[in-house]
Each structure stands twice: as C-alpha cells, then as structure tokens.
Write a structure and sequence with these properties.
Elements: E1 2-10, E2 22-25, E3 30-31, E4 36-42, H1 50-62, H2 71-95, H3 102-110, E5 113-114, E6 116-123, E7 128-136, E8 140-145, E9 147-152, E10 167-168, E11 180-187, E12 191-195, H4 197-208, H5 213-221, H6 225-237, E13 246-254
Helix pairs in contact: 1-2, 5-6
Length: 256
C-alpha cells in the first residue's frame, strides 16, 4: 500500500500564512511510515497558540503506536507535549524582552482549543483493507470510489455551527468531549478528502444540490494552487464560504 497526499491550505481573508491555525500531518507527498495515518486539525482563534495545539494533535495522532486510540490517554500525552513547547516559546519571548501582554496571559490561562480528524489505513486483503477514523469537532472526511460512498461524521450543511466540539489544553474543558469513531473498507484507487469546517460546509451544500464538488477541487489541488486560492476567494465573496482558514487534504491509495 502506498498513500499519496496532496495538501491545500490558506488563511482567512486578510490573514497572514503564519496566522493559519489549521494543521495537517504528515506533509510529505508520499507517505512512508510505520503507520499509514493522516490527521487534520482546526485550531480555534479564541485560544492561546492554537496553531501549536493543532500541530501537536495531528503529529501525535499520526505517530501514535496503534490504530486503537484511547482518547483520554492521547489527550493527556498531547497536553504534555504542548506544555513543553509552550514553555520554550515563553522563554524565547523573555529572552527577546517581549513578555506576554495582559490579553495573552488571559488567553493562556484559558487554554488552546482545536478539532481533530484522524484516519488510519490497514491493508488486510489483496485488493484493499480497512480504515478507522476518530473525529472530535466539525472537520469532515469524504471517501470516494468513482462516486461518494462515505461521509464522516454523518451531517448536513446546517450542522455546522460556531460552537463545535473541541479538544483543549485545559482539562477543565475536556470533561464532556464527544468522540465519534467510524470504520470502513477501502480498495486500491479510493480517494479520501479531509477538510476543515468552512470548506466541508461548502462540500455538503454542493452534495445536497446533487453536484460533485470534488471534481472542482481535483482540477486545482495538484498543479494549480493559485487557481484554488482564487476559487476560495470567489466563494467567500459570493457568501458561499465563511471567512475562515481552509485546509483540504486529498489522500489516494495505490498499490506499491
């Protein structure tokens, strides 16, 4: 089994690339790892250093030592890694004589917040295998085999709100986390799309209109990222897409 990954990500309108709080991992176009896993996360702008948190969540998921993820253990481990990285950042700020401003201290006390969508692939037959996905929040997974066969989590365009389920670095907010888990089968040639909420919402709207939005994405994502940027800008101007960070990862499964 060989996974190929093509990624597109862009910040909200008026935002700098460094302000994009989405994260996808791994970055390499051909995924060759002990575990065939990928993950996407959408950091919440109201948190402190949410881009770092979304990065930690995705990297830890991909490098988890089993496809059976115990979410409480996973979150505990991610928080440990985040705290180490946060302390490095704070020491750097002190060394540069740039202490935290009062509003940053308030945000830090509250914590960081992000969604998580991760999927792991196992090749168990000569023609394919099975996959398992964990989802916390409103990022979305689409599986295609000629036509759409799986949407996870099962939702529609009205399901997206401004208050999704989030993982926090502050355990106080993790007491009522709802984790959705799904398993499925894959065949060589299948394509999977992992998307953060803004573009996932548009995807659902298009599917509800019996259109095939993945054909538009496929036109651009491989060789024309600028064209996809322009298309995203058009959707925003037309009020078909909310002004938020956008990340799409297309994962294709091939025989070795």
């Amino acid at each position: 089994m060989k996974l190929t990954s093509t990624i597109f990500t862009t910040p909200k309108k008026g935002g700098h690339f460094s302000e994009n709080e989405d994260y996808y991992f791994p970055k390499e176009p051909i995924i060759k790892r002990d575990h065939h896993s990928v993950a996407i996360s959408d950091g919440a702008s109201e948190g402190f250093m949410s881009r770092l948190w979304s990065k930690v969540l995705t990297i830890c998921y991909v490098n988890w030592d089993t496809t059976e993820v115990k979410i409480t253990e996973y979150i505990d481990f991610c928080i440990e890694i985040y705290e180490i990285q946060k302390q490095k950042y704070l020491k750097k700020r002190e060394a540069e004589n740039k202490p935290l401003k009062w509003f940053e201290e308030n945000l830090m006390a509250k914590g960081s917040f992000a969604t998580l969508l991760g999927i792991s692939f196992v090749d168990s037959t000569k023609n394919g295998g099975h996959w398992k996905s964990y989802n916390i929040g409103d990022s979305c997974l689409i599986q295609l085999r000629e036509d759409i066969i799986t949407i996870f989590p099962q939702m529609n365009s009205t399901s997206f709100t401004n208050n999704p389920n989030l993982i926090s670095t502050n355990q106080h907010y993790n007491k009522n986390i709802q984790t959705q888990i799904k398993t499925g089968e894959w065949l060589y040639g299948d394509t999977f799309y992992l998307m953060t909420d803004a573009i996932a919402n548009w995807f659902h709207q298009e599917i509800e209109q019996e259109r095939k939005p993945w054909t538009i994405i496929d036109q651009f994502i491989e060789n024309n990222k600028q064209g996809l940027n322009q298309f995203i800008a058009y959707l925003r101007e037309a009020k078909k897409l909310k002004n938020d960070d956008v990340t799409i990862a297309r994962v294709q499964i091939h025989e070795d």
